[in-house]
Amino acid sequence: MRLKAIIQYDGTNFSGYQIQPNGRTVQGKLEAVLAKMHKGEHIRVTASGRTDQGVHAVGQTIHFDTSLTIPVANWLKALNTMLPDDIVVKDISEAPPDFHARFDVKEKEYRYFILNTKERDLFKRHYCYHVQVPLQLERMQQAGKFLVGTHDFSSFCAANSNVKGDKIRTITEISIEEDSAQQIIIKVRGTGFLYNMVRIITGTLLEVGFGLRKPEKVEEIITACDRSKAGKTAPPQGLYLWEVDYY
Amino acid sequence: MRLKAIIQYDGTNFSGYQIQPNGRTVQGKLEAVLAKMHKGEHIRVTASGRTDQGVHAVGQTIHFDTSLTIPVANWLKALNTMLPDDIVVKDISEAPPDFHARFDVKEKEYRYFILNTKERDLFKRHYCYHVQVPLQLERMQQAGKFLVGTHDFSSFCAANSNVKGDKIRTITEISIEEDSAQQIIIKVRGTGFLYNMVRIITGTLLEVGFGLRKPEKVEEIITACDRSKAGKTAPPQGLYLWEVDYY
């Protein structure tokens, strides 16, 4: 039986999603719990994609196969009881045997939280990026529009990435809004993302918001297909994998 | 020279404020940094009072004496550079040589944050107490009124406390309000507090908010002078030492 689960995690104390020999990872914790439930058998967990150290997830989606005959309703409780308190399973259900958490992704949404206040907030230090300089929201919104559509996003891909194939991706929607707590939230939806793409988009939009670059400059940056033309990579703690939609 | 500082800390990864042989403490970190600055000399830090493991501070106040001739303006930067990222010095200034962070307290304010939503919020798990059952705010407000004034608060003092002297304290103000994020915030101001007093008050108000006890019952609980008559001690992560006022 194939199960599909929606999970949340607080990325603060993880060395990212993907399992690695040393370091505490989300996949490592999930697979350790599943091994316990399956009497030591290794159960491989597949996610919609990895997230980096410090990056959070509100709607990460995974799948795995099981031979256990636990009713689906009991899985949720069993997993949440055994998982550490920084991973929560929000939903679990039976999926078709050919469902694939990575290959069947239709669209993903990421959100990046910027706390735009003079004073830093100690209690949010792991959950947003604190920017002291007042940001010019309207300029950022204008700049964001240039990113929507299908483009070669080479300028917005980490230089050390080993992406196979082209760097053409489609962003279906970008919105940049301020909430009541002086947080600027950048929402980016797309059919696929390159390594560090949302963090580089954020870093670039920030430079526009500071007044250092004109909004139209973003069009040039895309055309250049050169990572060095875009802004800095924004830090991980502001980024959330928010939602994954499937076909 | 005596210095007075207002500090904030995230209590999550501390075994409380007060220094102890094993365990990471706020006082321990402060004194370690001051020892470094004073070439190994032990500088004793005195706070307005201790806080327990997991309890946060937004306006804890401390004092210490120094022989260093650093301008006061540079102290803030020096301390914040050397302290770990879960302690922040918000303000530091010269105080009269007889100023005492504990003995000169006029009033203290604590705030307790209750997240009153069906779903728990993973990212707030260390910063509020999640209560699923909808709370009856008006009943809690009625109950709170009985606590204001000068009373023997024995019923609201941890049974294992070794308070010397009586347990008569004065609460000058209580307010219980809901914010826009479905958080119920209990503010308690008073001239002195017993061990676990705000957490036991919160636990008692919660039972009233659940509809398990009548608001008037609080008057009886006070009169009983018996810890077993009050509610459970609410967990630490919802509690913040918010402000300390001095004469």
From TrEMBL, chains A, B:
Residues involved in substrate binding: 110
Signal peptide interval: none
Record bears the keyword tRNA processing: yes
EC id: 5.4.99.12
Catalyzed reactions per annotation: uridine(38/39/40) in tRNA = pseudouridine(38/39/40) in tRNA
Record key words, sorted: Isomerase, tRNA processing
Subunit (UniProt): Homodimer.
Family statement drawn from the similarity comment of this UniProt entry: Belongs to the tRNA pseudouridine synthase TruA family.
Role: Formation of pseudouridine at positions 38, 39 and 40 in the anticodon stem and loop of transfer RNAs.
Name of this chain's protein: tRNA pseudouridine synthase A
Source taxonomy: Bacteria, Bacillati, Bacillota, Bacilli, Bacillales
